[in-house]
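hey
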């Protein structure tokens, strides 16, 4: 592809990134996917409304558990520190969901399955249901579904992730995450912009968890964790399950 032909693609990506659409995947035909991608896209089938049909009034599920620990070590298959290097949405095989892949460059692993071997490139990919993407026609489609985790990351951001295994261990999903920036720990925002609310045991009262070093030390210290549950003695409520129409 020539440099000139790349210009419209780059320009479109920049414009849509500013709209909160992040990286976009223009190719949506299952016939064009390789075997692994097609298998993964099939795992995210929703069996509902076809997002690619213009004028359809699709309903999106919003689901999250009633409460999870502030630092959910027990619930997580993986707990790690890393930097987001790529955010890329894909369409499910039946076109009823968008799932967004986040590629993480690993800096430190706090917890992982015994069978896990750190890849040579030190990266891991995790998924979130929901997102937006541009079709070949130029039309942008949206999936407003939210499962488990409410919040978005951005490329270049540094985070602590708590991940769970889904689809019989074939994929990973974000259970919780916090941004580390300027020596502080921030809660994530729903639109993916850098957060302003500090993590703390009590809302609006910064403590040791608000400080990056204090937060990381708390995760590393086994003395801070309940030996029976694997969790810290702090919980935070999430949004109750509901359905909304876009």
């Amino acid at each position: 592809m020539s440099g000139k032909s790349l210009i419209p693609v780059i320009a479109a990506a920049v414009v849509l990134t500013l709209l909160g659409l992040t990286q976009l995947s223009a190719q949506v035909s299952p016939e064009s996917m390789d075997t692994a991608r097609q298998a993964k896209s099939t795992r995210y089938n929703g069996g509902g409304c076809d997002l690619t049909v213009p004028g359809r009034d699709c309903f999106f599920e919003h689901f999250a558990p009633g409460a999870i620990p502030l630092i959910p070590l027990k619930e997580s298959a993986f707990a790690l520190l890393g930097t987001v290097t790529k955010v890329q949405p894909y369409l499910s095989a039946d076109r009823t969901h968008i799932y967004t892949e986040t590629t993480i460059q690993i800096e430190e692993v706090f917890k992982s399955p015994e069978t896990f071997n750190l890849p040579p490139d030190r990266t891991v990919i995790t998924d979130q249901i929901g997102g937006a993407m541009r079709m070949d026609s130029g039309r942008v489609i949206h999936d407003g579904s939210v499962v488990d985790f409410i919040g978005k990351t951005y490329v270049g951001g540094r985070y602590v992730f708590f991940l769970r295994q889904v689809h019989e261990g074939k994929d990973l999903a974000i259970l919780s995450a916090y941004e580390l920036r300027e020596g502080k720990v921030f809660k994530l925002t729903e639109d993916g912009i850098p957060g302003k609310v500090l993590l703390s045991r009590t809302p609006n009262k910064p403590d040791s968890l608000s400080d990056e070093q204090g937060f990381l030390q708390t995760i590393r210290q086994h003395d801070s964790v309940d030996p029976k549950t694997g969790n810290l003695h702090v919980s935070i409520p999430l949004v109750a399950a509901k359905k909304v129409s876009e």
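The longest helix spans residues 3-18. Residues 1-28, 227-246 have pLDDT under 50 and may be disordered.
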